[in-house]
Amino acid sequence: MFIEIANGLTEHSASVRSFEACAREARARIVGEPEQAIAWLLVARAAQAFVDAYDDQPLTLDIAGKELERFRQVLETLESAYAGGSAEAKVAALNTVALRLSAV
Question: How far apart are CA 78 and CA 52, in angstroms?
């Protein structure tokens, strides 16, 4: 569910515009999947943070790769918790992701 959003990034070389598209898709999923609204909001926030940081800056393949890996970790944390996890596991994953994003 969450990790599929990263597939487009991998296919499109993790560009600023690809992250921008991920943020848009995540925001759209908030409406379409309200039971995961908080998780999608965090995904949108993570993708938008990349756009805000690199939209007018040079972006090397090395930086793009590291940022993609960081973004994938966020998605994998959520994916794992929401794939049959308990309510407590979901809350823990949301808190983990929120803390990780607040440190960026």
Answer: 22
Concatenated DSSP letters for the chain? Answer: --THHHHHHHHTTT-HHHHHHHHHHHHHHHHH-GGGHHHHHHHHHHHHHHHHHHTTS---HHHHHHHHHHHHHHHHHHHHHHTT--HHHHHHHHHHHHHHHHT-
**Cβ–Cβ under 8 Å, residues 59 and 13:** no
In tens, the pLDDT along 63-90 reads 888 989 999 999 999 999 999 889 999 9
- pTM (predicted TM-score): 0.91
Tokens linked to 74: 């966020």
